[in-house]
Design a protein that fits this description.
By secondary structure, the chain is mainly α. It is built from 7 helices and no strands.
């Protein structure tokens, strides 16, 4: 089946890379990390493709999974490389033969171009991330029927500005300006100048 075919190819890659790594004297932790990554990828392909290729239309719905908090584990750095075609560089070609991963790389390209695989990719979006990772580690150009990763950056809310602290007014080195007369002052001065004095003050 298609699921078993792709999983078998990935497991073959694991055997080749780990065997060539032991011959070249690569670090044991790196080979263990690569072996674990490819083993999990093969199992994921097998389960996802088997679920996508099911033909039983009336399958019993699965009960929802209950959330179980996982225990906190210490952070360990990921030893698996992330650059383009890193799996081919771990198993370089010898002087008398080509890269050992190239035949399996060509078989994986043919598997991705299969019409059944095209239909499975279109119906199951969970296949997109592992297939893109497989193409990246082998240096395979991304097929046109495999969607590119969508990056939707989460908008970060603007940080609230801190209120400014009120500063006390600084004393001015200059003397205060003279007070300007208001219309009421001018009216009072007019009446004092032109009105006759009262009789009680005479």
């Amino acid at each position: 089946s298609l699921s078993l075919r792709l999983a078998t190819l990935v497991r073959g890659l694991r055997r080749i890379v780990v065997g060539r790594g032991h011959q070249l004297g690569l670090p044991r932790p790196l080979l263990d990390a690569v072996s674990l990554r490819l083993t999990r990828m093969a199992a994921r392909f097998e389960s996802l493709l088997a679920r996508a290729l099911q033909t039983s239309p009336q399958s019993a719905p699965k009960p929802p999974r209950l959330y179980r908090p996982r225990p906190e584990r210490p952070h360990t750095p990921d030893l698996v490389p992330r650059h383009h075609a890193w799996l081919l560089r771990l198993a370089p070609a010898r002087e008398t033969e080509a890269n050992a991963c190239m035949p399996l790389r060509a078989s994986i390209e043919q598997c991705l171009a299969d019409p059944a695989m095209r239909a499975a990719i279109a119906q199951n979006p969970a296949l997109h991330p592992p297939l893109r990772a497989l193409c990246r580690m082998l240096g395979i150009p991304r097929p046109t029927h495999l969607p590119a990763p969508t990056r939707n950056p989460t908008p970060t809310p603007p940080k609230p500005r801190k209120p400014r602290r009120p500063h006390p007014p600084r004393p001015s080195p200059f003397p205060p300006a003279p007070r300007q007369p208001t219309p009421w002052d001018q009216r009072q001065a007019f009446h004092r100048f032109f009105d006759p004095p009262c009789a009680e003050f005479l």
